[in-house]
Design brief:
Radius of gyration: 20 Å
Strand content: under 5%
Order of helices and strands: HHHHH
Number of strands: 0
Helix content: over 70%
Structural class: mainly alpha
């Protein structure tokens, strides 16, 4: 028998993908960029030009830089673990298309739980038994 058509694959859930909400994508990207900047290049931040936010960042760098560094690397570690577990979760939920699994992997790697939560909450349609 020939492979399943695109419509059949969409119906059976093997190609299920859902993009994270834009607001979460923007917020997480902004947060990770700020954490990365504070962690890797704190001397290049123009604190005086950022107003109260610059004062807050300077306070973090001066008083809690080591903890900010830990937070940055731990957050990346969590994103990586979530991304790999997301691929396993795809397989267990019947999402078998490798391209779709790769989309889930990249989205979860970049946006963490904003993507992973969508995958966890996905309920595939029950298989029909004839």
């Amino acid at each position: 028998m020939a492979g399943a058509t695109d419509a059949e694959r969409l119906r059976d859930g093997s190609c299920h993908f859902q993009r994270s909400r834009l607001i979460w994508m923007i917020a997480i990207t902004f947060g990770m960029i700020c954490l990365g900047w504070i962690t890797l290049w704190p001397s290049t931040i123009p604190y005086s030009h950022l107003g109260i936010f610059g004062s807050f960042l300077n306070y973090l760098v001066e008083n809690y830089h080591q903890w900010v560094c830990y937070g940055f690397w731990v957050s990346w570690l969590i994103h990586i673990v979530e991304a790999f577990y997301g691929v396993k979760l795809c397989q267990s939920k019947g999402i078998t298309d490798p391209a779709v699994q790769f989309h889930w992997f990249i989205q979860t790697l970049l946006f963490g739980y904003a993507s992973f939560g969508l995958l966890v909450s996905y309920k595939p349609a029950a298989k029909k038994h004839y």
